[in-house]
Amino acid sequence: MSYILIIGAKSDIAKAIAREYAKHGYDLCLAARSSDELKEFADDIEVRTQRTVNLAELDILDYKSHQFFYDNLKEKPLGVISAIGYLGEQDKAQVDFTAAKKIMDTNFTGVVSLFNIIANNFEYRRGGFMVGISSVAGDRGRKSNYIYGSAKAALATYLSGLRNRLHDAQVHVLTVKPGFVATKMTKGIDLPEKLTAQPEEVARDIYKAQQKGKSVLYTKWVWRWIMMIIKMIPELKFKTMSL
Predict the structure, then answer these.
(1) Residue 178 near residue 133, CB atoms below 8 Å
(2) Rounded to two decimals, what is the model's pTM?
(3) Is 6 exposed, middle or buried (0-12, 13-18, 19+ CB in 10 A)?
(4) pLDDT at 1 > cutoff 70
(5) DSSP bridge pairs for 82
């Protein structure tokens, strides 16, 4: 069985995804900056699952390195999962474009740069799957995180177009839209317990949705209905709300 490439592999969700796929018999390649920091984690997966876990150095913001990174993979992956996410600080990004640009480039531009390269290879091979983690924050702009949300909205639109393009080449593209997830990125934020998923729950949902060939996944599932209601609120009312 070929391996799964996970980018942004140091995040809590990425690690949970790695464990989930290894548990189901997949070898892995974990790509991230300072990937050597994942050595202990990779060794633990190998011991627990008897799967092979390789590490690869990847800077998602170093666009010029992306083609070399992919070309340098001796064997190309069966599938790729982007777990890259950077929340940033909305207040700072409103007044400092450098901060805003980092949010947009990390969550959108860098992923597009690498995914374009992989998509071209998968289309040529006529097979594979691509999973991108967007966010419910991209479903409607809110003053609390609209720069992060706009980047995730752009990623969701990109994945939708990619799914349309690659359908005839038998390449499956899955858009994942998590709601609240208890991770390092959300540490310090007061999250509602009943609406907050654990990384392991998100990983299980992603694996099931990818195996079933679904197009869009909300996790927890209740977020599909929450966001449907939020999107139905008239703009006249919505712009006066604090969400």
Answers:
(1) yes
(2) 0.94
(3) buried
(4) no
(5) 7, 132
